[in-house]
Fold this sequence. Notes:
Layout: H1 29-32, E1 43-49, E2 57-68, E3 71-76, E4 91-95, E5 99-102
Antiparallel strand pairs: 1-2, 1-5, 2-3, 3-4
Amino acid sequence: xxxxxxxxxxxxxxxxxxxxxxxxxxxxxxxxxxxxxxxxxxxxxxxxxxxxxxxxxxxxxxxxxxxxxxxxxxxxxxxxxxxxxxxxxxxxxxxxxxxxxxx
Length: 103
């Protein structure tokens, strides 16, 4: 299912789900080649380590706010279901080679 969002919309809780590690998204090297500035003010999907063997990664959306060199910074826009160490609204630091999807 493809989600379409308008400016100001929040994706929080709109598309949360769990899946096995074989079916889960993986980083997309084609997206990494677009360059970090391409993602500013867009939502990117990232996989976060859970420490849980059944669901080793939790995939959530982050709204990219700024870029510094190869580092990207954004705001988590989901309430985690498995991970308890971060919450919706947390500042997330990552690189473009971690991005699984963009919208």
